[in-house]
Amino acid sequence: MSCPVAIALQYLLNALQLGSVYALIALGYSMVYGILTMINFAHGDIFMVGAYLAMWATLFLLGLPLNLPIIFIFLGSLLFTMTLTAALGVSIERLAYRPLRQAPKVSAVITALGVGLFLENFTLATIGPEPRQVPAIIPVQQYSWGGVAFTNVQLLILVVSLILMVLLDTLVRRTLTGMAMRAISYNRVIVPLMGVSVDRIISLTFAIGSAIAGAGGLLYGLAYPVLDPYMGIRIGWWAFIAAVVGGIGNIRGAVLGGYVLGTVEIFTPVLLASSTYRDSVAFSMLLILLIFKPTGLLGRPTVEKV
Amino acid sequence: MKKSNQASERGRLGGWYWTLGSLALLALAWLLPASGIMNLYLQQVLMYVGINIILTLSLNLVNGYMGEFSVGHAGFMAVGAYVAAILTVAVFPRAWGPVVFPLALIMGGLAAALAGLVVAFPSFRTRGDYLAIVTLAFNMIVKSILENINAVGGPRGYMGMSKLSNLVWVVFWVLVTLLVLRNVIYSNLGRGIIAIREDELAANLVSVNTPRLKIYAFCLSAFFAGVAGGLYAHLLQFINPRSFSILKSTDMLVMVYLGGIGSLAGSILGASLYTILMELLRPLELWRWVVGPLLLVLLMIFRPTGIMGLKEVRWLQPTASEETGWGKVARRS
Amino acid sequence: MMALLEVTNISHTFGGLQALADFNVTLNDGDLVGLIGPNGAGKTTVFNLISGVYRPDQGRIVFAGQDITLWPSYRRMAAGMSRTFQNIRLFKDMSVLDNVRLGAFAHYTYSFWQIVGRTASFHLQERRLTQEALAMLARFGLAGSAQAPARNLSYGEQRRLEIARALISRPKLLLLDEPAAGMNQAETLELVALLRDLHREFALTIMLIEHHMGVVLDLCQRVQVLDFGSTIFAGNPQEAQQHPQVLEAYLGKEENGEHGHAIAEP
Asked: B280: distance to nearest CA of chain C, Å?
């Protein structure tokens, strides 16, 4: 562990783990923005709900007198969480965002803020403000390789998020549905004329984005097993910054941004010798980026028609 | 032509009514508590109403009149609250409190206005949801910085302020805010600010100096938010960074959009209704906090411009003679 | 004599697409010049570059002796330029009077403190500019709707209001982007007469984009024809009608002949 390269690698691994979670959430922000040019501020709270749902699913499956295999409990919780968060995402779109699709942008953004706060405060009111401990599904095992320590949980998080990201990227780039999504984000007026149901594609976008955020919630719970109703604010914001850094509306940009933010979070305390400044660092980064390159690293600029 | 002017003139109040009305309100604000007719609890609620009116009016300038959306207004409030509190507690001797208080409020406001520049400059290039992000980020940075400064208590907060806020000061600042904003809105400056909301590009192309106007609007808005923060700090006598989180900003948004965007009367109405509603809902405990967000969403869906949306009651508009001097000419001829 | 507006070799591209290439124009005081060409030829781009909506990729714009190439729009307008828009851009929720008063934005010189204090100087300026605005509205037959929101006006009235808003600042140069678009024959004739009067009365220099060839022939001393971002003709309007390249731009490439008809119309 004394070798500086090994220490750096160790931090990098932690950054990758955290970055994976940010990337998963950033994907949802980016997908919705791509298709509706709207920032779904409630997305971070869908992630929070996902983390709680995963906790309850795990508790339930562990409590069953069946002695289920670990892999089954993990996949069962994952499926349960992703399904319910997808349903939550679709309902939010149906009830709160769809009536506002023709309304001014301001209304949509404020509604999204309102929905996010509603989810937070509703969770707070139903289960109380005390932080909850997530049960360990997987017995943690430590490995060491060349002075770098890692756990099976870390590997699992990296692998599962990588699988989800590749699946999503394939969906968006290779399938007809993905093509419809990209078409809508390009021009929402033409697409319905081609026989594509815009409503259905938008619902699907919310479903997929929210399901992935739910998965992010479960993985986050594995790595940082304490949950509270306001956790979605901070994590959601970091993920959002990730989406902006990568160029919001851009799927691969969101993943890139996620890892950038994971790195920022892990390395800021190391470099500044204080962990409390990391929020200021991330938000200052956001401000600077928005002032000088509002389209992010991989985004395209837009021009107003006169 | 003349007819329509006179018609729109009806019900508007001239300068004298304003002066008398303001003095009467100030007198009431002093008399009612002093004579014991108004109990402490009611005074407290009314002071909250007043502080919220200042916050709502100031936020409405940016969100309602200028049509930008600032969603981090609590950040400015925080700057004002901390600066004013530090001035009365640590900089000046405590005994000077009542004398120093107005100065502290103004300094707090000025500090907030300075912070307003942080948001005004990005607004030259970014609009809409990106500006919303900038303002939210600003809110979070302020909170994060305050949590990191141990000299002001860090996350534990700052205390030691005397209870210098009273109903008279609150009413006084409500009137100042109202009058200044009204005068600004019914002027060339205000028309330019509204033009930015209507069509920023066209505004630029009729010679409206939009960057300068944005600086005015953001700084003025931040100034009054800062003053409100100072009043709040010396009412509660305890502030901590968490009191100025996004939740607080959202409350202000609810009040603006409930009462009505682009309306002074709407701001007064929205702030009063919401503050009193939240007071009445106290028995609901935690569930109370679900009401605000839910109300906000429902408002956006069913009445996005709020109760008074873009309308103004006549007695808050300047008379034609005050606005343009027509009346004086007409009377002379 | 120094030209009022001198545009030298300006070009503009949109994401790789050349919208305008090496455009040149010189306007002297009192000129009334038409800018014509098929749809998408880059006419509005010229206006956007002159009025500062876009920055040119290259070239220089000199207005009243000053290089304004890098100036923001509002500064150009304050220096004595005004424009209207192809699709009317009024401040729809504001009153007709406020729309016109905004046209003179740069002419108000009272300070922030004079606004807050409502000083004598404030009232004096407000009164003067309001009276000017009302006079301008009367000139355009809109005085009766001064207090109505701009969105309540008819289409023709909105076009007139936009011109009133452009004129209140007493500009030296007026850029009119299809002022007759959507107007019927009678309204168009009225507009032509009005523009001719205004040109003389306000000593204006006008540059005009128009599809109605009748308007252009009636009004303009010179025309400049654009096609695919390049100037293909500059000279007097009668000659333009006979010029082979101009005819090809209108007739040769557009099979429906709609513009061909328009250009033949007297």
From this structure: 37
